[in-house]
Design brief:
Blueprint: E1 7-15, E2 40-47, E3 59-64, E4 76-81, E5 85-88, E6 92-94, E7 107-110, E8 122-126, E9 137-141
Antiparallel strand pairs: 1-2, 3-4, 4-6, 5-7, 8-9
Length: 149
Amino acid sequence: MVSRLILSTTITTITSVPNSSLAGSEAPSNPSTFSGDYVQICFSISAVSCPSPRQPLHGSLVQKAYNGVFNIYLSTVRYDCDMGYRMVGPQFRMCQADRTWSGNDTRCEEILCDKPSPPQNGHVYFTDNSENVGSQIEYMLVIDYFFLL
């Protein structure tokens, strides 16, 4: 497998003098002594990085470093949702060369349960007035009594 690290280069200073030559023994051994017909270029190199991904409400994220560094090109993040919530969006995202995370934002949505049908001659109640995962229901049966005299 071939690993690549994309770098961003920024040239910060260019100084040139006509008839410059950087060949062979004419180039000075100490860059701080540049003078005359030499070109001095100063630049900085930094890894392509993405902004820190956001943790979804009612969920978590686990970042995986690439070459020991987080939020750089090819690093990944994995999302998980708390119990009672379902994931909307990708579970895995990767930092891309354009400094964005792949895919759309991931969020965790509450799972709501449908109210079950009541039994014949009865009713169904959510005991905690909630229809989310883990809620309990109560069935009530209506029984008719007939008295014979």
